[in-house]
């Protein structure tokens, strides 16, 4: 079955990453499957930041990891700069991964506690030596680029650093092999609010300085809006809406996007924006047995009969705005 449509994909000549009909399924016992990602298509121009947003369990992190082949998807195509990543095996696949790096949610636990900062950042160069500057020079250059003084932190262990400093080390480690695509998986959600803005600014700066394309995964629409050029909203393994940040915020077309936006707290009151409930009462259905038709129908206030029988495909509803809904807002 088709996924949720590909009308939002741009001309292949314009993009560096093109993902089509990505499917990730896991065995769930007794012949059942977890339908974690069900036919996702997306693309990215070189230097763009694509935000993947949705509630916990919507498949956004699994999508990001499947694009990076960590692990490879069950089905689908991932074309990066003309190379079909899903066909790579063994050494070719390992080598291709030097072009793709990840930044994780919890910076402290993603660093080896027994290694010094300098050893952590240098590790990739020991596995994949590169020409050019000596490894130590490259490590110090990157530590400075992420705002750390190599003389002060180079010999420290992760437990001697703050959460924000650890995330800076993670970013330096991710950049050491000069990747082209960076998957940022909830990179600020474990950090204090005061540090979040600094790390987001740093990622923006690194993107410009090192010509990176970013896949930015987060549950927080406010964070995603701030960094993204294009946002993909996901629900239960499917794409609901694709749009530029301003359009998505000002005119959300999918009932789920509208629900997410109403749940973003106002900065001054801490209350959900729009005064409405942060969530509908219904629980998110299980990805083992997702609803027929539109997967959001069990929580959707606009659902009608056709929503249970026919899957809505993405269609254009505005300039660079696409929605998969029979009755958009
Ligand atoms: S297709 Fe129907 S159930 Fe799905 S979001 Fe639209 S109105 Fe709601």
TrEMBL record:
Domain named ABC transporter: residues: 17-261
Chain intervals for the UniProt region annotation (Disordered): 270-293
One MF term in the entry's GO annotations: ATP binding
InterPro entries assigned: AAA+_ATPase, ABC_transp_ATP-bind, ABC_transporter-like_ATP-bd, ABC_transporter-like_CS, Oligopep_ABC_C, P-loop_NTPase
Record keywords, A-Z: ATP-binding, Nucleotide-binding, Transport
Annotated Pfam families: ABC_tran, oligo_HPY
Protein's UniProt keywords contain ATP-binding: yes
NCBIfam families: oligo_HPY
PANTHER family: D,D-DIPEPTIDE TRANSPORT ATP-BINDING PROTEIN DDPF-RELATED (PTHR43776:SF7), TRANSPORT ATP-BINDING PROTEIN (PTHR43776)
Family from the record: Belongs to the ABC transporter superfamily.
Name of the featured protein: ABC transporter ATP-binding protein
Source species of the chain: Phytohabitans kaempferiae
Lineage: Bacteria, Bacillati, Actinomycetota, Actinomycetes, Micromonosporales
